[in-house]
Amino acid sequence: MIHVNANHTGRFTIVGNHLAQHRELSLTAIGLAVHIQSLPDGAKVGIKVLAGRFAESEARIAAALRELEAHSYLERALVRLPGGKLVTRTVSYNQPGAATTEPTPAVVPAAAAVAVPAAVAVPAAAEPEPEPARAVAPAPRAAPAHERTPQRRPSRPRPPLPQPRTPALERYRAATDLLAGLRRDEPRLLLAEHDVRRLAPAVAAWLERDAHPDAVRRALTADLPGDLKHPAGLLAHRLTALLPPPLPAAPTPTHTGGPDPFQNCETCDRAFRAREPGRCRDCRTGVAEAA
Fold first, then answer.
1. Distance (Å, rounded) from C-alpha 210 to C-alpha 245?
2. d(CA 236, CA 200)
3. Comparison of pLDDT for 150 and 122, the residue scoring more
4. Do residues 184 and 236 share a domain?
């Protein structure tokens, strides 16, 4: 491969190789991240908007957005506007774990703007007059430990939501009904429609592993925290962390080696031990002698 590179003078976006060469993201997720990073603040990046812009389906774009969320390139949260309307706020990170505020550019003094090489001699007549002494401000006092602002630690990538191995429409409908009906058992678990669609494949993965819907409902509604602020995030965590293993196959019944069960003889009704019903030994002997 040979690169033919031209310098961009306008309308370009800088993308790190950590994204362009990511080994765990799909090509759809990488391309979607580059497109989102190229958009200005305030642009709409909903699933329907992106599906109308590109040829990929809504399901594929939704899966790519979940990949970017899992690797901390994207963060989506519900925000209530002053009028009471709920909207989704999307935050795009061009460097996961980096600070969200831009650093203040350092001010370069005018006297230090041009550096004079030491090898060049400056004539005495050209030397500038010494500047008057300036008052030096005292160094700022270090704040006590209890007043210091804790530094923000980079958030760990969220694990992806469970996905069913084999898609089934009936199972997906049952998962959607289960999530939408959680508010009947717990009013605080009122989910938005897009959260129900996002969490439904994870519930379908539980149902695929023979988990009863009542057991799934109890796992999602039991021991809820008192200050529940993000019900969709809590349910996503429980569906991922508490995913049960697949149900093992039923063992094949085998003979344990103990005594055979009692059977009633079909001829004389005498009790005898045998694995299967039939005649006792005396009746089998009599039939053989008569033959």
1. 10
2. 10
3. 150
4. yes
